[in-house]
UniProtKB/TrEMBL annotation:
Record-annotated DUF7351 domain positions: 105-281
Residue ranges of every copy of the DUF7347 domain listed in the record: 19-47
Biased composition (Low complexity): 317-331
Region feature (Disordered): 1-26, 49-76, 181-208, 317-350
Biased composition (Acidic residues): 332-344
Protein name according to UniProt: ArsR family transcriptional regulator
Amino acid sequence: MSDDVPTGDGSRDPGPGTDVDEATDVDTTAGFAYHLRQLTDAFVRKVPASDAAADGDDAASDQGSTADADEPDRYELTDAGRRVARAVAAGTYTASVDTEPVALDDDCPICGDPEGLHATVADNVTRVGCDACERDVLALPFPPSGYATRDPERVPDAVDRHHRRRIASFADGVCPDCGGSATGHVEPVDEDDRNGVAGTDTSADADTDEPLGVRARFACEACTATLACPVSLALLDHPAVVAAYHDHGVDVRERALWTVGVDWRERVLSTDPWCVRATLRDPTDDDPDGGPRDVLAAYVGRDLTVVDTDRLDAAGASAADAAADDGAITADAEDADATDDAPADDGTPA
């Protein structure tokens, strides 16, 4: 299409049909007209010459001038047309990106090797793996334009941010792809079918001898987009989780998705009704002998709603004590200004 036709900012500067025709590779005017008719209404709309003249020359219109009867009709992109044009320009449907491995600063969440973790891109999918244990940690798709507009060293961080926002948007009930209504639920999975971040363990169900794997599953009711991840990754924006990390000197926003899984353990407490206990371990405790300490338990229902949380560590208790001592009057707090002569609830002197 010609440069006169808007492709991005939505401004109305429609191009004449003849200009658009000349900008295409179609051999005949009849052939072009056929293709244009297929796009009309859905991706482009016809703007009568009189309307285009009125929009383009308000001064002339105020003076009573009219459009030339021989001036051709013009066309402009609809919202859907602009979206398609932007997607094509960004390479969404045409570009395939492959890159060499990029070393990551994080320890491998599987074997703990401090130097083996790397990210490789193949056909627009960023795969994080470890050279030391020769295992993949996760694989996440990323738009081609995300690779094209960044140096390779900056891509892993962008991939992490992109997918954190996708998970958060799905968890909020909004599809990140089309804006449609999205729902989420806990679903059981077999060991071979788990789709998530390596390092997130699932403990055995309380009523069985076999481990019951679970994950969070989101789906859009409009475009059918789906996302599956460990239950714990759907909790990272919860205030209690953010606070627990913060109390231990860790900004959870700075923890990459491929490393945060080692902080969590998930246990199915019940399937009727569903209840998953996601336990956060001390993210700063690297003692291999004593084992990491549990600092927070989050109880998650079937629809991935956090129904309750429980702080399990001294830092959480200290924070709670500090909140209780901040001077706020609570139901069981003593009023410092009260005297022995203050009336009791029944109106008689105490």
